[in-house]
Amino acid sequence: MRESLVALDLVLDELGVPTKVDTFRDRKLVQKAVYVAKAAGVDLGYTYGWYVHGPYSPALTRDYFALDEARETEPLPEHATLQKQVKDALAKGRDLLTVPKDVDRSPAEWAELVASLLFLYEERRLSANEAHDEIVRLKKPLAAYVDRARQALIATGFAEGPPNS
Amino acid sequence: LLHDVGHYPFSHAMEDAIADAYSGEFLLSSDDDKTSGVTSVNALNHEDVGVRLITGPTEIHDILSGYGVEPEMLAAIIGHKEAPQLANLISSDLDADRIDYLLRTARHTGLPYGSVDLDYLLAMLALDSQSRICLDPRAMRTAEHLLFARYFDYQQVAYHKTVVAFEELLKSSFKDLIVQGPLDCSKETIEAAVCDPDEWLCFDDARIWGMIRELAGVGGDEPPVLRAKALTRRRGPKLVGWAEFFSLRNDNRRDLLDLLTQVKRAVPVTASVGNIDETLVWVWSSGSKAITTLGSQVFLSERGEIDPEEEGLAVRILAPDRSSRPLVEMESSLLSVLSNYSLGVVRLYALPPDPEPKGWRQSVSGAVASEIASYHWTPAA
């Protein structure tokens, strides 16, 4: 198995994200989780753009289908494991991707929300208020949880500021 | 013109090798328990390199600025940071890149498959009510022809058995050069190089060939040396066996995965019978390849859940009310039927000892065939 696919597999596992990509919801969760990992400092080398559901990488799409194929046709290399620094960096990503108990959304939708906010802060350089308005404008089903997502970003160290800013 | 300006020498083959070589730093080797402290893949893909060439202190940046073109705006389109309808000019079933390479390949290989009617396609381009690029209905057949042309081009050129053999060998050799040290494609090295025209413009195929020749000249029978020698002597990996079949997507994928599992398990036998190292054996697959990008990974039978991002890659046909529909949804299009089918190709290659012993390929392909239970599989000898 290509080492880039091994790394992708291990990163997803460390984030607590299943590698199965059977449904759009599965694939969306993988896309956003790898973006969150990137924001946490674990950059697998995928370039993300802004698409219908927020941050999305066509190259990652090719690779997660390749990983899906590889996992079905060969075993993972024995003893493959991530370096400790990588695991440490991913811990906060795992925390961010955990859907808070007061949020009635699927893991994929929550991941879309937090990853989209991160993208708007980091790539578009929008302020907290501008990013809030953009999400409300573009993602009505998620609009009710934008403030909660910002709180989660601050609590996990992905964004700065008072929790209610 | 600029979206591929960041490609490395040998294009995608080198990019794949770089991604693979630098991903290894991510992983902890249980053998020596050493940690590198790396938390990011220390390499750039060609789009990232392109963005740096356009926005950095480079000649391209100066020329663009001189003509009043904002380099950052172009980089945003290439990096998909901007409106998808603009980005789709450079990445969709109907993008400029695909049309260009089809015509270019047709010209340089002498094969007619990529001869698409570019002028008519350009004349029929339109925008729908959501500002998505689409085609006037009169160009539907031209668009179908484009997609067929691309499909045949893949089968006849990109998937040609010898092209694939040398591409796999090249990728392995590039990775050898990176792992062994002469080739440094780390992020910081490339970032510095793109700002230095004397360095960047000399970072070309010829320089890489020089490194491969040097490695080949080391002598001995270590696999990296054997791979380099195979390249310099133009003796690529030999086809041991293959399967190629066209079927309904779900069946195609299931059969392909089953076959791939068996072929991968046959690698040790190939190496053992062929008396070569296992790293001189390659399993190659096209994946389950559909004729259209839309649904190439996600089956159209699951249309209710199709990725909106992927749907954006489809060729769209304009309707009288200025809305548009993907070509594969038009019932008068052949593609509405054919897009439900896929091509699956699996091949096993091995690099024979040099000189190749008499009967080597027959004995290896025979041994492999006895390990594989599939009526799709054909021994090469």
Distance between the termini of chain A: 45 Å
Largest sheet of chain A: 2 strands, antiparallel
If helices are DSSP runs of H or I spanning 4 or more residues, what is the number of helices of chain A? Answer: 7
Strand order, largest beta sheet of chain A: 1-2
H and E string of chain A: HHEEHEHHHH
Indicate the mean pLDDT of chain B: 87
* Mass-distribution shape of chain B: globular
In helices, the fraction of residues of chain A equals: 55-70%
Strand content of chain B: 5-15%
The span between the termini of chain B is 45 Å
**Main pleated-sheet profile of chain B:** 4 strands, antiparallel
Number of helices of chain B: 18
Q: Give, in order, the helices and strands of chain B.
A: HEHHHHHHEEHHHHHHEHHEHEEHEHE
Radius of gyration of chain A, whole Å: 16 Å
Structural class of chain A: mainly alpha
> Largest interface, with Cβ-Cβ < 8 Å?
A-B, 45 and 46 residues
**Would you identify the regions of chain B where 5 or more consecutive residues have pLDDT less than 50?**
294-305
- What Rg of chain B do the Cα atoms give? 23 Å
What is the number of strand segments of chain A? 3
What kind of oligomer do you see? heterodimer
Query: What value does the average pLDDT of chain A take?
Result: 89
